[in-house]
Amino acid sequence: MSTNKRIVLSSDHAAIDLRQAIAKHITDLGWEAVDIGPNTTESTHYPKHGRAAALQVASGDCRFGIILCGTGQGIMMAANKVAGIRCGVCADAFSARMIRAHNNANMLSIGARVVGDALAIDIVDAFLNAEFEGGRHGTRVDMIEP
Ligand code: RB5
Q: What pTM value is reported for the model?
């Protein structure tokens, strides 16, 4: 298991409060939250925030990334354009567990306009508590990279 306890967080303007709540939650769990903002609700562009977070995961500086926008979809698409990133949008805890267990996801995306705050925390917990199962799933994950 990795000893890297750093998790990068980012979002667009649609998810500032939820992102900050998640940052506090994971800090309370013993992770180091690397919250790269933004910190105002001024309208911004989700692709640059998704990419910035993804680069920190792809470089190995952070073990995981948690990113948010209104739906979680746009920022996920941006993150997945960075080589080595496997990011899924989750609106339920089962999917969050499975993207770690079967897909070895290294980033989680959440839609702040889709899920409530309590469910978002459950989703984060499911993601962080799961382990990649490897084996046949490793073979398939290896096939994702171009
Ligand atoms: C911003 O209005 C919204 O489009 C964005 O947060 C996200 O939902 C895009 O995927």
A: 0.97
